[in-house]
Design a protein that fits this description.
single chain, 352 residues, mainly beta, three-stranded antiparallel sheet, 1 helix, 5% helix, TILa domain-containing protein, signal, TILa_dom
Amino acid sequence: MMCKMLRFILLTFIISIACAEDNDCPATDGKCTLADGELLADEQTVLTNNCRQIQLCGKGVLITQDYQCPKNSMCGKENGKEACVCSAGFEWSADKETCQQVVQGNNNKDADNNNCIDLDGLAFEDNRSVLSQGCTKLQACMKGQVYTRDYQCPADSHCGREFFCGYNRDACVCNSGFQWDQNKKFCLKMADDAPKNQPLKPTRQPCEDEYGTIYPTDRSVIVNNCKQIKYCAVGRVVAQDYTCPSNTVCGTHNNAQACVCPNGSQWKQNLNRCVAPLKANECMDTDGQIYSSDQSTIADNCTKLKYCANGQVYASAYSCPRNGYCGRHEGKDACFCRQGFQWDRAFKNCIR
């Protein structure tokens, strides 16, 4: 990265010589204006276009060059701006030129406490959930045991990197031109016709539309019989087309328009549909299977141990003990001891 910076500085020097002989060169304070209206100081660089380009401000002239993050790194966010961040299990070298592998502990549990190690080799705390494996897995740490389920970033977002639980980790990041809603559940498109001299980001002041309706900055609002969604950005109200998810209908919630589940059913995020309400101590798996909380259940031909917690089902690898085999008991997967063997008192091993 440093070599690319030096080449940029050389380009800036060439431009300054050319400007000395060219009356058309800009007479500025050396700053440059980016496409989103942000000002870039002289000799300052910024990554754009999902880190595929690097831009340098040289004496008021904006220089753009193709760029690629170094090996074992990927495009992410740092301080709200695009940046190359080291992939899971790697960290920057002292000169910030390369990403070097980090040596971690074992593959699932911190020996000193109930903390866990995720699939990327990074530690995280008990009762925490993190993304790993390129945002394809959501992992929860429960008393030193890691439970895993499949995961997918929402529409109009991609897998990036954010600092969380002491490491730069996998995180879903909204695509360019989009921003998270207040609950970080989905990415909303920013206004295409926003003022070019302003950064495209939410303001701290509420907005007022042409009808005098006030929209706060901390949430989006569904309007027009659930056919539009409005939010406050760059000092104005932005509207975009919207459609309620399948199996939901347009209704009211807290005296406002909202997509609601009909007939007392409830929305289930991992199923992406409305389902009959669950009991307080139950969870529903992606296949619709219901599990009770605080209980481990053998599943998937005795290859997984599933656990219900906080309304989500998590899974860890499992196998029947030596001299045991997988069977069915009361309609569920279960391990049995082979002929001539029986369970020990803890029901963990098959013994003679």
